[in-house]
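REQUEST ID: PR-0412
SUBMITTED BY: lab tech R.K.
PRIORITY: routine
TASK: structure prediction, single protein chain
INPUT:
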Amino acid sequence: MRPEQLSVESLQAFVAVVDTGAFSAAAERLHLTQPAISKRIQTLEATLERPLFERQGRRVRPTEVAERLLPEAREILARLRAIEQQVADLDQVVRGRIRLATSHHIALHRLPAPLSALRERYPELELELAFMDSEAGIEAVMHGDADLALATLPEDLPKDAEAHTVWTDDLAPMVARNRAQDTPLDTLRRLLDWPAILPPADSTTRRQIDQALAAQGLHPTAAQESPYLEVIRMMIAAGLGIGFLPRTMATDDLAVLDWPGAPVTRQLGWVRHAERYRSRTLEAVIEALQRPQ
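STATUS: complete
OUTPUT:
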Protein backbone atom coordinates (compact mmCIF):
# COMPACT_ATOMS: atom_id res chain seq x y z
CA MET A 1 0.00 0.00 0.00
CA ARG A 2 1.24 3.48 -0.90
CA PRO A 3 0.27 6.54 1.25
CA GLU A 4 -1.19 8.28 -1.82
CA GLN A 5 -3.79 5.52 -2.04
CA LEU A 6 -5.41 6.82 1.17
CA SER A 7 -8.09 9.35 0.25
CA VAL A 8 -9.13 12.22 2.48
CA GLU A 9 -12.78 11.23 2.02
CA SER A 10 -12.13 7.70 3.25
CA LEU A 11 -10.22 8.95 6.28
CA GLN A 12 -13.02 11.39 7.13
CA ALA A 13 -15.56 8.58 6.92
CA PHE A 14 -13.35 6.31 9.03
CA VAL A 15 -12.94 8.86 11.84
CA ALA A 16 -16.66 9.67 11.78
CA VAL A 17 -17.61 5.98 12.13
CA VAL A 18 -15.18 5.52 15.02
CA ASP A 19 -16.49 8.60 16.81
CA THR A 20 -20.18 7.85 16.36
CA GLY A 21 -20.05 4.06 16.56
CA ALA A 22 -22.43 3.60 13.63
CA PHE A 23 -22.42 4.03 9.86
CA SER A 24 -25.80 5.81 9.94
CA ALA A 25 -24.63 8.35 12.54
CA ALA A 26 -21.41 8.93 10.59
CA ALA A 27 -23.44 9.56 7.44
CA GLU A 28 -25.55 12.13 9.28
CA ARG A 29 -22.46 13.83 10.67
CA LEU A 30 -20.84 14.15 7.22
CA HIS A 31 -24.10 14.92 5.41
CA LEU A 32 -23.78 11.81 3.25
CA THR A 33 -25.87 8.72 2.61
CA GLN A 34 -25.13 5.54 4.53
CA PRO A 35 -24.20 3.66 1.32
CA ALA A 36 -21.65 6.41 0.57
CA ILE A 37 -20.07 5.93 4.01
CA SER A 38 -20.01 2.16 3.55
CA LYS A 39 -18.33 2.49 0.16
CA ARG A 40 -15.60 4.76 1.55
CA ILE A 41 -14.90 2.36 4.41
CA GLN A 42 -14.80 -0.59 2.00
CA THR A 43 -12.33 1.30 -0.19
CA LEU A 44 -10.11 2.03 2.80
CA GLU A 45 -10.29 -1.59 3.99
CA ALA A 46 -9.38 -2.79 0.49
CA THR A 47 -6.41 -0.40 0.42
CA LEU A 48 -5.18 -1.57 3.83
CA GLU A 49 -6.13 -5.20 3.13
CA ARG A 50 -7.46 -5.38 6.67
CA PRO A 51 -10.93 -5.09 8.24
CA LEU A 52 -11.44 -1.91 10.24
CA PHE A 53 -14.72 -2.63 12.03
CA GLU A 54 -16.53 -5.53 13.64
CA ARG A 55 -20.28 -5.34 13.15
CA GLN A 56 -22.43 -5.70 16.28
CA GLY A 57 -25.99 -5.21 15.13
CA ARG A 58 -26.41 -1.58 14.19
CA ARG A 59 -23.24 -0.62 16.06
CA VAL A 60 -19.65 -1.22 15.04
CA ARG A 61 -16.45 -1.65 17.03
CA PRO A 62 -12.97 -0.70 15.75
CA THR A 63 -10.53 -3.54 15.14
CA GLU A 64 -6.93 -3.42 16.36
CA VAL A 65 -5.89 -2.10 12.94
CA ALA A 66 -8.43 0.70 13.24
CA GLU A 67 -7.19 1.62 16.71
CA ARG A 68 -3.66 2.00 15.33
CA LEU A 69 -4.82 3.97 12.30
CA LEU A 70 -7.04 6.37 14.26
CA PRO A 71 -4.46 8.82 15.72
CA GLU A 72 -2.63 9.03 12.38
CA ALA A 73 -5.90 9.66 10.52
CA ARG A 74 -6.84 12.42 12.93
CA GLU A 75 -3.44 14.06 12.53
CA ILE A 76 -3.56 13.88 8.72
CA LEU A 77 -6.99 15.53 8.63
CA ALA A 78 -5.92 18.21 11.10
CA ARG A 79 -2.82 19.02 9.02
CA LEU A 80 -4.88 19.26 5.85
CA ARG A 81 -7.29 21.70 7.49
CA ALA A 82 -4.32 23.78 8.65
CA ILE A 83 -2.92 23.86 5.11
CA GLU A 84 -6.29 24.95 3.72
CA GLN A 85 -6.43 27.80 6.24
CA GLN A 86 -2.88 28.92 5.52
CA VAL A 87 -3.71 29.13 1.82
CA ALA A 88 -6.93 31.00 2.56
CA ASP A 89 -4.96 33.48 4.70
CA LEU A 90 -2.94 34.50 1.66
CA ASP A 91 -6.05 36.23 0.31
CA GLN A 92 -6.26 38.51 3.37
CA VAL A 93 -9.92 37.51 3.57
CA VAL A 94 -11.64 35.72 6.43
CA ARG A 95 -12.98 32.62 4.74
CA GLY A 96 -12.99 28.87 5.08
CA ARG A 97 -14.54 26.48 7.56
CA ILE A 98 -14.13 26.49 11.34
CA ARG A 99 -15.35 23.51 13.31
CA LEU A 100 -16.74 24.46 16.70
CA ALA A 101 -17.38 21.84 19.36
CA THR A 102 -19.86 23.40 21.78
CA SER A 103 -22.05 22.40 24.67
CA HIS A 104 -25.80 22.84 24.21
CA HIS A 105 -25.93 25.37 27.05
CA ILE A 106 -23.28 27.64 25.54
CA ALA A 107 -24.86 27.34 22.10
CA LEU A 108 -28.29 28.34 23.42
CA HIS A 109 -27.32 31.06 25.86
CA ARG A 110 -23.98 32.51 24.69
CA LEU A 111 -23.55 32.01 20.95
CA PRO A 112 -26.50 33.70 19.18
CA ALA A 113 -25.00 37.21 19.29
CA PRO A 114 -21.39 36.39 18.25
CA LEU A 115 -22.54 33.97 15.54
CA SER A 116 -24.88 36.57 14.12
CA ALA A 117 -22.07 39.14 14.12
CA LEU A 118 -19.71 36.72 12.38
CA ARG A 119 -22.27 35.89 9.71
CA GLU A 120 -22.88 39.55 9.00
CA ARG A 121 -19.23 40.59 8.94
CA TYR A 122 -17.69 37.57 7.18
CA PRO A 123 -20.15 36.12 4.64
CA GLU A 124 -17.51 33.71 3.27
CA LEU A 125 -16.92 32.14 6.69
CA GLU A 126 -18.40 28.68 7.24
CA LEU A 127 -19.09 27.61 10.81
CA GLU A 128 -19.74 23.95 11.52
CA LEU A 129 -21.16 23.30 14.99
CA ALA A 130 -20.87 19.94 16.71
CA PHE A 131 -22.86 19.64 19.93
CA MET A 132 -21.23 17.64 22.69
CA ASP A 133 -20.37 17.73 26.37
CA SER A 134 -17.54 20.06 27.37
CA GLU A 135 -15.16 17.20 28.11
CA ALA A 136 -15.83 15.59 24.72
CA GLY A 137 -15.44 18.96 23.00
CA ILE A 138 -12.00 19.54 24.49
CA GLU A 139 -11.00 16.01 23.53
CA ALA A 140 -12.19 16.66 19.96
CA VAL A 141 -9.92 19.71 19.75
CA MET A 142 -6.91 17.80 21.05
CA HIS A 143 -7.57 14.99 18.56
CA GLY A 144 -7.86 17.43 15.68
CA ASP A 145 -11.59 16.82 15.09
CA ALA A 146 -12.49 20.43 15.94
CA ASP A 147 -10.70 23.75 15.64
CA LEU A 148 -12.17 25.29 18.78
CA ALA A 149 -14.12 23.99 21.76
CA LEU A 150 -16.58 26.16 23.66
CA ALA A 151 -16.74 24.51 27.02
CA THR A 152 -16.83 24.63 30.77
CA LEU A 153 -13.13 25.01 31.53
CA PRO A 154 -11.65 22.34 33.82
CA GLU A 155 -9.08 23.04 36.51
CA ASP A 156 -6.52 20.90 34.66
CA LEU A 157 -6.30 21.29 30.91
CA PRO A 158 -4.72 18.68 28.64
CA LYS A 159 -1.09 19.15 27.61
CA ASP A 160 -0.75 21.52 24.62
CA ALA A 161 -4.19 23.03 25.24
CA GLU A 162 -4.66 26.81 25.17
CA ALA A 163 -7.77 28.22 26.86
CA HIS A 164 -9.35 31.56 27.61
CA THR A 165 -12.29 32.40 29.88
CA VAL A 166 -15.02 34.31 28.07
CA TRP A 167 -18.00 33.98 30.42
CA THR A 168 -18.56 33.21 34.11
CA ASP A 169 -21.61 31.40 35.43
CA ASP A 170 -22.77 31.95 39.01
CA LEU A 171 -24.47 28.72 40.11
CA ALA A 172 -27.19 28.68 42.76
CA PRO A 173 -29.46 26.03 44.30
CA MET A 174 -33.00 26.16 42.93
CA VAL A 175 -36.32 24.43 43.52
CA ALA A 176 -39.78 24.67 42.03
CA ARG A 177 -41.41 27.84 43.32
CA ASN A 178 -44.48 26.02 44.67
CA ARG A 179 -42.26 23.63 46.65
CA ALA A 180 -40.33 26.54 48.14
CA GLN A 181 -43.57 28.00 49.46
CA ASP A 182 -44.96 24.71 50.76
CA THR A 183 -41.91 23.64 52.74
CA PRO A 184 -39.97 26.57 54.24
CA LEU A 185 -36.71 24.72 54.95
CA ASP A 186 -33.23 26.16 54.82
CA THR A 187 -31.07 25.36 51.80
CA LEU A 188 -28.79 22.82 53.46
CA ARG A 189 -31.74 20.89 54.88
CA ARG A 190 -33.35 20.74 51.45
CA LEU A 191 -30.10 19.49 49.93
CA LEU A 192 -29.91 16.84 52.64
CA ASP A 193 -33.52 15.66 52.40
CA TRP A 194 -34.65 16.23 48.81
CA PRO A 195 -33.71 14.32 45.64
CA ALA A 196 -30.72 15.95 43.97
CA ILE A 197 -30.81 16.56 40.21
CA LEU A 198 -27.26 17.07 39.00
CA PRO A 199 -24.97 16.96 35.96
CA PRO A 200 -23.05 13.69 35.33
CA ALA A 201 -20.44 12.79 37.92
CA ASP A 202 -17.58 12.98 35.39
CA SER A 203 -18.40 16.53 34.27
CA THR A 204 -16.49 19.66 35.28
CA THR A 205 -19.69 21.37 36.45
CA ARG A 206 -20.58 18.42 38.70
CA ARG A 207 -17.13 18.39 40.27
CA GLN A 208 -17.45 22.08 41.12
CA ILE A 209 -20.89 21.53 42.64
CA ASP A 210 -19.66 18.51 44.63
CA GLN A 211 -16.72 20.53 45.99
CA ALA A 212 -19.09 23.29 47.15
CA LEU A 213 -21.41 20.77 48.80
CA ALA A 214 -18.53 18.91 50.46
CA ALA A 215 -17.35 22.20 52.00
CA GLN A 216 -20.74 22.30 53.74
CA GLY A 217 -20.47 18.68 54.87
CA LEU A 218 -22.91 17.40 52.25
CA HIS A 219 -22.36 14.46 49.89
CA PRO A 220 -25.70 13.89 48.20
CA THR A 221 -26.22 11.11 45.68
CA ALA A 222 -27.86 12.28 42.50
CA ALA A 223 -31.38 10.93 42.18
CA GLN A 224 -31.28 11.90 38.52
CA GLU A 225 -28.51 13.09 36.22
CA SER A 226 -28.49 14.91 32.89
CA PRO A 227 -25.70 16.51 30.86
CA TYR A 228 -28.17 19.16 29.69
CA LEU A 229 -28.84 22.04 32.09
CA GLU A 230 -32.09 22.81 30.26
CA VAL A 231 -33.34 19.31 31.12
CA ILE A 232 -32.25 19.75 34.75
CA ARG A 233 -34.12 23.08 34.83
CA MET A 234 -37.26 21.36 33.55
CA MET A 235 -37.06 18.57 36.15
CA ILE A 236 -36.52 21.05 38.97
CA ALA A 237 -39.44 23.20 37.78
CA ALA A 238 -41.62 20.07 37.69
CA GLY A 239 -40.94 19.57 41.40
CA LEU A 240 -38.78 16.46 41.02
CA GLY A 241 -36.01 17.72 43.29
CA ILE A 242 -33.35 20.33 43.93
CA GLY A 243 -30.31 21.28 41.86
CA PHE A 244 -27.76 23.93 40.98
CA LEU A 245 -28.23 26.08 37.88
CA PRO A 246 -26.72 29.31 36.53
CA ARG A 247 -28.62 32.28 37.94
CA THR A 248 -29.27 33.39 34.36
CA MET A 249 -31.56 30.36 33.98
CA ALA A 250 -33.85 31.37 36.85
CA THR A 251 -37.44 31.81 35.67
CA ASP A 252 -40.77 32.56 37.32
CA ASP A 253 -41.41 28.88 38.06
CA LEU A 254 -38.11 28.51 39.96
CA ALA A 255 -37.09 29.80 43.38
CA VAL A 256 -33.43 30.69 43.89
CA LEU A 257 -32.33 29.66 47.37
CA ASP A 258 -29.78 31.33 49.60
CA TRP A 259 -26.39 29.62 49.54
CA PRO A 260 -24.46 29.81 52.84
CA GLY A 261 -21.07 28.89 51.41
CA ALA A 262 -18.58 30.52 49.07
CA PRO A 263 -19.93 31.44 45.62
CA VAL A 264 -20.24 28.48 43.26
CA THR A 265 -18.95 29.56 39.86
CA ARG A 266 -17.76 27.95 36.67
CA GLN A 267 -15.69 29.41 33.87
CA LEU A 268 -16.87 29.07 30.28
CA GLY A 269 -14.60 29.79 27.34
CA TRP A 270 -12.71 28.51 24.35
CA VAL A 271 -10.05 25.83 24.07
CA ARG A 272 -7.72 25.21 21.12
CA HIS A 273 -4.63 23.13 20.41
CA ALA A 274 -1.72 25.46 21.13
CA GLU A 275 0.62 23.76 18.64
CA ARG A 276 -1.67 23.99 15.62
CA TYR A 277 -1.83 26.85 13.14
CA ARG A 278 -3.91 29.78 14.38
CA SER A 279 -5.46 31.03 11.17
CA ARG A 280 -6.84 34.46 10.39
CA THR A 281 -10.29 32.88 10.27
CA LEU A 282 -9.90 31.31 13.71
CA GLU A 283 -8.65 34.65 15.06
CA ALA A 284 -11.82 36.31 13.74
CA VAL A 285 -14.00 33.75 15.52
CA ILE A 286 -12.11 34.15 18.80
CA GLU A 287 -12.31 37.93 18.53
CA ALA A 288 -16.09 37.78 18.03
CA LEU A 289 -16.51 35.48 21.04
CA GLN A 290 -14.48 37.79 23.30
CA ARG A 291 -16.10 41.00 22.12
CA PRO A 292 -18.45 42.38 24.84
CA GLN A 293 -22.06 41.87 23.87
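NOTES: The first helix runs from residue 8 to 20.
REVIEWED BY: pending
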